[in-house]
Design a protein that fits this description.
single chain, alpha+beta, four-stranded mixed beta sheet, elongated
């Protein structure tokens, strides 16, 4: 059995928990202010924004804990360490986005049926506060969000909440100057639909990783054809390709050789395969089982 890691991919970016802690603090303050303001003003959109902010706080805490766990070293009973902690956090955060969205839609429908007058001045000022605080948090997490699914989930929570605060601000201005109170539940509905839009994509992405699905960017047949072109290889079968986290993509396969080659020859072929799949497909962990005349299934995909 040959196993190889590509050395170029182990410069894992250290993610700072400090930015997450700052964002948790800011969102906790916003949530408290918005709940109080929403109850005083009677604004459903402000209360819905507060509910979203509260989900942000929980999500950021989950992301922070996952970030800490992901840095722990592997052990005998945890051979992969906690590398999937951040994927689980991303899944949980995406799921909460969808749950919050459903709650907001229900509340918006009820308020459509029973519109109420709202104290718009308080709504305007608290929405403005939400824009500033969430905007700063978005700025803090933007860089890490580009390369880490967990940070992306936290970033999306904050970004959507900043946009929600913008919507609430617009609604507050329309209510103040034009007395259009039905805009409050309409904006709430719009916020909820947008949350569903961004949350669903992240939920699908994290689910694919957790279920060990082949990454969308990789075609198994292409890899089989590429490896199968080598003169010494008769057949490529029993292939598994999965993503452990954002930084690690694994390939397992059985190779049926034309001849009973030596171990040194196999190591040379393994190195060639590793370079091929890394540069073409970004696969950085390769495990190959060499075979010669073994009477097992030669199908590419084998269900154990």
């Amino acid at each position: 059995m040959g196993h190889s890691h590509h050395n170029h991919v182990h410069s894992h970016t250290e993610l700072s928990g400090k930015n997450l802690l700052i964002s948790i603090f800011l969102n906790t303050l916003i949530t408290v202010f918005q709940v109080i303001g929403g109850l005083i003003s009677g604004s459903l959109s402000l209360l819905s924004d507060a509910l979203h902010n509260f989900s942000d706080v929980l999500s950021l805490i989950v992301s922070y804990i996952a970030n800490l766990l992901s840095k722990r070293k592997a052990s005998a009973n945890k051979t992969f360490g906690y590398k999937r902690a951040e994927i689980i956090a991303a899944f949980v955060n995406a799921a909460t986005l969808l749950i919050v969205s459903v709650i907001l839609i229900i509340e918006a429908v009820e308020r459509f049926l029973d519109p109420q007058q709202i104290e718009s001045n308080l709504v305007i000022w608290l929405a403005f506060l939400g824009i500033l605080a969430n905007g700063f948090s978005v700025f803090l997490l933007k860089k890490d969000a580009a390369s880490n699914m967990n940070m992306k989930s936290a970033y999306l929570h904050l970004l959507t909440d900043m946009l929600a605060s913008v919507a609430v601000l617009i609604g507050g201005l329309l209510m103040k100057f034009y007395k259009i109170y039905w805009i409050d539940p309409l904006l709430t509905l719009g916020i909820a639909m947008y949350l569903i839009y961004v949350g669903w994509d992240l939920l699908k992405e994290s689910t694919r990783v957790l279920m060990l699905f082949t990454p969308n960017t990789i075609q198994v047949q292409d890899i089989v054809d590429s490896i199968g072109k080598m003169d010494s290889i008769k057949n490529v079968h029993h292939v598994h390709i999965w993503q452990l986290n954002e930084n690690e993509v694994h390939l397992e396969a059985h190779l049926d050789f034309n001849e009973d080659i030596s171990l040194s020859q196999f190591e040379s072929i393994l190195e060639e395969i590793e370079e091929e799949v890394f540069h073409k497909y970004g696969i950085n962990h390769v495990t190959i089982q060499p075979e010669y005349g073994k009477p097992d299934s030669k199908h590419i995909i084998v269900q154990d």
